[in-house]
């Protein structure tokens, strides 16, 4: 009986502290990487994503043509901010607060995989059988707009 009381008191002391800890947000399941994208359709061109700290720091360079207009640019995400600029116009750019990080952290409660599945479901996508793409086992969702493959949270 004494052990049960000690255990119960210990739980009342420890659990509130554990509940107060926030899960570390990790958009990607790997620490760092470089991903090269090819765009086709309304937007044609290439993009390169560089990321570190599980996606919390990233830089995306895009060189593409959309609606007949050629565009190049960088989007750098670091902490609570995003920096956007075109290398052809180095004296212009934007610094924006990144509300998506806060929104993601609050909405997902640290479980980005379930959160992502929920978002795709709201967009009309449904879970499909896993596929292998470029040698990586990917999760797949399908919808009227096509299919989306992700590996470790990274859009393939």
Strand composition percent:
35-45%
> Nearest-angstrom radius of gyration?
21 Å
Mean pLDDT: 77
Q: Low-confidence parts, pLDDT < 50 over ≥5 residues?
A: 1-23
Based on secondary structure, the structural category is: alpha+beta
Describe the overall structure:
This protein starts with a helix and ends with a strand. The chain contains three helices and ten strands; from the N terminus they run H-E-E-E-E-E-E-H-H-E-E-E-E. It is 26% helix and 45% strand. It is of the alpha+beta class. The protein has helices spanning 2-20, 99-108, 112-122; strands at residues 33-39, 43-52, 57-66, 69-78, 81-85, 94-97, 126-133, 136-143, 146-151, 154-155.
Comma- or semicolon-separated keywords:
156 residues, alpha+beta, 6-stranded antiparallel beta sheet, 4-stranded antiparallel beta sheet, disordered N terminus
Concise overview:
The chain has 156 residues and is α+β, with helices and mostly antiparallel strands. The chain has three helices and ten strands.
Write the layout of secondary structure elements.
Elements: H1 2-20, E1 33-39, E2 43-52, E3 57-66, E4 69-78, E5 81-85, E6 94-97, H2 99-108, H3 112-122, E7 126-133, E8 136-143, E9 146-151, E10 154-155
Antiparallel strand pairs: 1-2, 2-3, 3-4, 4-5, 5-6, 7-8, 8-9, 9-10
């Amino acid at each position: 009986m004494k052990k049960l009381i000690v255990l119960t008191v210990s739980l009342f002391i420890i659990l509130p502290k554990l509940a107060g800890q926030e899960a570390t947000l990790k958009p990607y399941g790997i620490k760092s990487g470089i991903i090269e994208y090819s765009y086709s359709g309304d937007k044609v061109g290439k993009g390169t994503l560089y990321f570190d700290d599980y996606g919390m720091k990233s830089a995306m360079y895009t060189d593409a043509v959309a609606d007949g207009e050629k565009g190049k640019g960088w989007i750098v995400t670091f902490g609570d901010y995003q920096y956007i600029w075109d290398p052809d116009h180095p004296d212009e750019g934007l610094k924006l607060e990144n509300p998506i990080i806060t929104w993601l952290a609050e909405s997902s409660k640290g479980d980005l995989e379930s959160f992502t599945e929920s978002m795709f479901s709201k967009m009309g996508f449904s879970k499909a059988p896993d596929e292998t793409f470029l040698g990586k086992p990917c999760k797949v969702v399908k919808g009227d707009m096509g299919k989306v493959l992700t590996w470790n949270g990274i859009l393939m």
